[in-house]
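Hi P.,

Sorry for the delay on this. The queue was packed all week, but I finally got your sequence through. Input first:
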Amino acid sequence: MPTIKIIDSIKIDIYAREHPPPHFHVLYAEYEELIEIESLNTYIGKVPNVQRKKVVKWADKNKDYLMGIFKQLNPKL
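Then the structure:
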């Protein structure tokens, strides 16, 4: 279940067998960015600012949902 949300063709994915810190992947065209769930800071990568703002706005309202999925897919972290 990697894709958990699509916002205007921006995919938000969470994968199993991940590494800390808890994060999600943002995929848009040829761009990819990993964003930490708690702080919503960039861990690595970059997507265009317009798309990032949409994702962060949604993620800020859905942190518990994101963390729940991350923990479900990565129970040892």
